[in-house]
Write a structure and sequence with these properties.
about 300 residues, mainly alpha, elongated
Length: about 300
């Protein structure tokens, strides 16, 4: 079924408007200016803002909304759950219409699924980058806590000093932990929440040391200094492994690009070939087998390049 040109133009206009809206909301959320403005303008809330808050609240009550909220928070991206969901819906609809009209409807559906995975992949990549940046700051965090406790300060005060001295993302995450402590949460629970937000083996060791020392006592200063030295060595090893595996990572991305480019090239060389293949059983089997092989190759290469240090 071929859609008329006005319908396609209308879909493109709606998609462009939602994309501009999502980009504007993302840019507006960066920095501390947005939070300061929000606190100073509590009495000037517009009807559109109220509707967006209601949509956000409704989405967060669902399992998908809670998952998106956790991914957004872990990635450090300043964007509403409703904005992300609407952007994903608009981009998927545009992919179904454009790719389905250009090649075949089945490819439009595949493109829509690919758009969703790309957006989620972007969030996952941002989450991994933020976790890597936090892990790189752990040796400095251990040294700051060691110096603060060596000066006779309590652990809560040491965390406040570390939150003020360290840059983001460590500073931001520690400020969340300090705020939780000020609201009455116990030190064990606050540190446990920090470990859930940024799960890693290195942070788990540091949190376990702090929790055990707060419960049973012991030489916390010596333990923190030893952990700081160990984390520094692990950071260097992770950097070397990342450099060595860089070629395999590029190969993984190249295979994905070649897959999409090959499909587009076939349709350019022989217009309508993919549409004809998708309408017959043999062509559908060939296309499905090719898709499975490409996806399998991507997964295998990704498994080979994922090394835990």
């Amino acid at each position: 079924m071929t859609l008329p040109l006005p319908a396609i133009l209308a879909m493109l206009a709606v998609t462009l408007a939602l994309a501009v809206w999502a980009l504007g909301d993302l840019v507006a959320g960066w920095g501390d200016a947005r939070r300061l403005v929000a606190r100073s303008e509590l009495g000037t809330t517009t009807a559109a803002t109220v509707r967006m808050h209601r949509i956000d609240a409704a989405l967060r009550r669902t399992a998908v909304g809670r998952l998106l909220e956790r991914r957004i928070a872990a990635s450090g991206t300043r964007i509403r759950v409703s904005t992300l969901a609407l952007a994903m819906l608009a981009a998927s609809a545009a992919a179904v219409v454009l790719i389905g009209k250009w090649i075949a409807p089945v490819f439009g559906i595949a493109a829509a699924v690919g758009v969703v995975f790309l957006i989620l992949g972007f969030l996952r990549r941002r989450e991994e980058q933020r976790r890597e940046e936090f892990i790189a700051q752990l040796p400095e965090l251990a040294r700051v806590l060691s110096n603060a406790t060596n000066a006779g300060l309590a652990m809560r005060t040491a965390l406040e000093i570390a939150a003020d001295e360290l840059a983001d993302p460590a500073g931001e995450e520690l400020r969340r932990t300090v705020d939780a402590l000020r609201l009455g949460q116990s030190l064990d629970d606050a540190l446990h929440d920090l470990g859930e937000r940024l799960p890693s083996r290195e942070l788990g060791v540091l949190i376990s040391t702090l929790v055990v020392s707060s419960r049973a006592g012991g030489s916390l200063i010596t333990a923190l200094r030893a952990i700081g030295t160990t984390l520094e060595e692990r950071k260097e090893i992770r950097r070397e492994v990342k450099t060595i595996m860089g070629e395999a990572v590029v190969t993984n991305w190249s295979i994905g690009v070649l897959c999409v480019a090959g499909v587009a090239l076939v349709n350019v060389i022989q217009p309508g070939a993919l549409r004809t293949m998708s309408e017959h059983l043999v062509g559908q089997v060939i296309l499905a087998a090719a898709a499975v092989l490409f996806v399998t190759s991507l997964i295998v290469i990704r498994r080979f390049t994922r090394i835990d240090v």
